[in-house]
Amino acid sequence: MKTPEQFLEENGFVAAADLDRAALLSAFISEMDRGLRGEPSSLMMIPTFVGVNGKIPEGSSAAVLDAGGTNFRGAIVSIPPNITDKQNQPMPGTKGEVDEEAFYNAFASEVKRLEGKASCKKLGWCFSYPAEATKDLDAKLVRWTKNIKAPAIVGQFVGKELMKRTGGEGVAVVNDTVATLLAAKATEGDKTYSSYIGFILGTGTNTAYVEKNKNILKMAGLDPEGSMIINAESGAFDKAPRSKFDEAADAKTGNPGIGLLEKMIAGAYLGGVGLEIYKAAAKEGLFSKEAASALGGLGSLETMDFDNFCAGFKKEGRDNVLDTVFANPDDAKMAKRLGLPVFERAAVLTAVQLAAFVIKSGEGADPAAPVAINADGSTYYKTRAIPFDATVRRELDEMLVQRRNVHYAITPQVDDAPMVGAAIAAML
């Protein structure tokens, strides 16, 4: 009988140890450059018109809104990061369709509640839906996600519309990845960072970095001596080697062919890849008849269950379907050998893309001024099957520090990073 490693390789699955880091790095940077030039690329490289220059005075505070899911939040954020007056409420449009006035009135009421409690006159708004950024830090909604029903808002500049109803002195609208990058500034203290990267790896994934190329800034109509955050939409990178299992899992999603890197590393998809591996392995005779029969009736697999099973972790109060499917110890051993490579590959691909953004930033030559990476998201910090963060750091050390003498620092995790980052956008 073939080994699990042979089975994976025969189906095009490239194990972490066999991934060509140099080739992937080159491909990632090439896609970034093409996207920045407006040429065909899997990476959108969206200009945000947000900079990072300036120090945030300790004690500064701003009122913040955070909208990106089924709830939105309002709070006062002060630096060093401290969040007060936080309040959650349903996102308008989640309980049924709302018109323009009902939508903005919900946010205007929250702004009024926070009025007079912050030192910064400008409002920070983390707005994490597909939107076009503008030079005055507004956002034009392109489409809703997460089943929000507020069709009148599509095509509107949400910051401008909110200010009409609040009479405020301005708003800085940023998405969650840009806000995560800005939140790294809140961890500076006495440290010196040469540049910043914001990275989210949870249900989905995305990355933002600081671009300082004069020609690119000039093309965007900005000061060529300055800098600007670029939202890469990095989950769309399509040059990583995909297996038959990745292709099969992708075909069953609601958006096949879209977000190919995201579907190899993010929490919404890893369970699906694992299930395709298990079902194919059963057909190859790698499992007992009992396990193969049980797998045949399994329609889906949550990444949490896949991860917990591979880690040998039993979550209190949660039955894991894989513990039942692979009740036979030999089946369980085989399943873990087939499953762990999915998480190992995800960690290496994560490190490759982060290395590409560090290199593209053009900074980090001075070890006393590394490039700061603020990583956020449950997949990055809560994966149990492998030591995910430690694996990423080991790979970055090899690709950046040892091979290029380029230095990075993964910053301390910032709680409520999108809110903190939105506050900093307003303060800057």
Structural topology:
Blueprint: H1 4-10, H2 21-36, E1 46-47, E2 61-67, E3 71-78, E4 82-90, H3 100-114, E5 123-127, E6 131-133, E7 139-141, H4 158-166, E8 171-174, H5 176-183, E9 195-201, E10 205-211, H6 214-219, E11 228-231, H7 244-251, H8 262-265, H9 270-283, H10 289-296, H11 303-311, H12 321-325, H13 329-361, E12 371-376, H14 378-382, H15 388-404, E13 408-410, H16 417-427
Parallel strand pairs: 2-5, 5-8, 9-12, 12-13
Antiparallel strand pairs: 1-11, 2-3, 3-4, 6-7, 9-10, 10-11
Helix pairs in contact: 2-13, 3-4, 5-16, 7-9, 9-10, 9-11, 9-13, 11-13, 13-15
What is the structure about, briefly put?
The protein is of the alpha/beta class. The protein has 2 domains: 282 residues, Hexokinase, domain 1; 114 residues, Nucleotidyltransferase, domain 5.
Count of all domains: 2
CATH level 1 name of the largest domain: Alpha Beta
Which structural category do the helix and sheet elements fall into? alpha/beta
- Major sheet attributes: 6 strands, mixed
CATH architecture of the largest domain: 3-Layer(aba) Sandwich
Flag low-confidence runs.
none
Total number of beta strands: 13
Instruction: Provide a count of the helices.
Output: 16
- Which strand-content bin applies to the residues? 15-25%
Instruction: For the record, give the distance between the C-alpha atoms at the N and C termini, rounded to a whole number.
Output: 62 Å
* Mean pLDDT level: 94
Determine the fraction of residues in helical runs and give it as a percent range. Answer: 40-55%
